[in-house]
Amino acid sequence: MPDDTTRIQKNRRAQILEAGLDVFSAEGFNGATLDGIARAAGLSKPNLLYYFPSKEAVYVALLNGLLDTWLDPLRALDPAGDPVEEVLGYVRRKLHLARDYPRESRLFAGEILRGAPQLQPELSGTLRRLVDTHARQIGDWMAAGRLATSDPHHLIFSIWALTQHYADFEVQVRAVLGAERDPWAEAEREVQAHFARVLTPTG
Amino acid sequence: MPDDTTRIQKNRRAQILEAGLDVFSAEGFNGATLDGIARAAGLSKPNLLYYFPSKEAVYVALLNGLLDTWLDPLRALDPAGDPVEEVLGYVRRKLHLARDYPRESRLFAGEILRGAPQLQPELSGTLRRLVDTHARQIGDWMAAGRLATSDPHHLIFSIWALTQHYADFEVQVRAVLGAERDPWAEAEREVQAHFARVLTPTG
DNA sequence: TGAGATTTTGACCATCCGGTAAAGCGACGT
DNA sequence: ACGTCGCTTTACCGGATGGTCAAAATCTCA
């Protein structure tokens, strides 16, 4: 009783999702067209619709598949580790995620920016619970004097905001820095230093 | 020789821009429809097109009108003031701008997210020059030991990222914090404290 | 090889959308 | 009273787009 999806089905679905990620992240849900996605996937439009029932289905499949990956770095926080190191590690992983998967980051950003029509349940469900859990962890570290004190939720927001900024607003960052500079290399240094300052408790 | 635009033209154009801001910021350029904008403005679609030649014209009119307002807080940096106070003041003004004009913030974010098809010249022109100027000012303050040292450009990015996050990703912020909490009130406190920590030079 | 299931295609459809054309309407000056 | 000018509306068009369908091509496996 192994799954009844053939090898070719797996491949085609993967192709379509890859193409959908490309197109949706660049044009947004409304800007993307089935023809465009199909072309990017090397298929005809009806062929694409043989594997997914609708444009929206491709979109939500992408979003759902994304959320877990996106939240993994947060889950990796180790209560037994050194607090500053742990949170800085989270910052680093999140920044690398934005650097290595900018299309995913932009897809996400577009969905949230439009009011999260598809993702809202996940936001106030899975996401909220996960954040609450780790915010509590961070709060404990602060209470123990092992992290500079602030509101843990807003600290997490600041990490999201800063790391994703480099992916979501990449054109702006590049325009402002100029073509000679390397945004991601600098971001690595600067973001790390920024949060080292924010997190390290004052003697 | 006074301008030949009548009073009613001024009013209608303003109505249309207001409606366009509403619709474009909520649905994005592709998601927005002329009918939708016209309805929001209390006009018929052909009537709207009597005042603007195309959908894109409404959109770019909005963007152009916006950029100046958006950059005003940066221009207000006073070289003669106290560095920490000045930059914290910039943070506060930028946060208030995001709080009071979330539609503008989201319109902007959407444009950048899609690669700034309309705004790119402004980004590498006006914006870059303005940022360079003030980055140099901030750099001087740092060199004088009156601000904690970092890369001024990335410091500015971090201010943009953090303040706009509360407007652009408002649904996510609200979902994570829960309905009882007041994101903007907390943001005011937390963002201020965050940057106080980042900016204040160590003894 | 051949039957049956799976995959692919081309032709087609209904709807929506940006934009146009032309006629109607109201105020105002002569 | 009438013509003109500025504003508004009704009717319409062409193209794009999401999606359907039935037939054709291809693959699988006995």
UniProtKB/TrEMBL annotation, chains A, B:
Q: Name one GO molecular function term.
A: DNA-binding transcription factor activity
Q: Does the keyword NAD apply?
A: no
The Gene Ontology biological process annotation of the record reads:
negative regulation of DNA-templated transcription
Q: Give UniProt keywords alphabetically.
A: DNA-binding
DNA-binding keyword on record: yes
**Annotated DNA-binding ranges?**
33-52
Q: Which InterPro entries would you find in this protein's record?
A: Homeodomain-like_sf, HTH-type_TetR-like_transc_reg, HTH_TetR, Tet_transcr_reg_TetR-rel_C_sf, Tscrpt_reg_YcdC_C
In what residue span(s) does the HTH tetR-type domain sit?
A: 10-70
Q: Which Pfam families match?
A: TetR_C_3, TetR_N
Q: What is this protein called?
A: Rut operon repressor
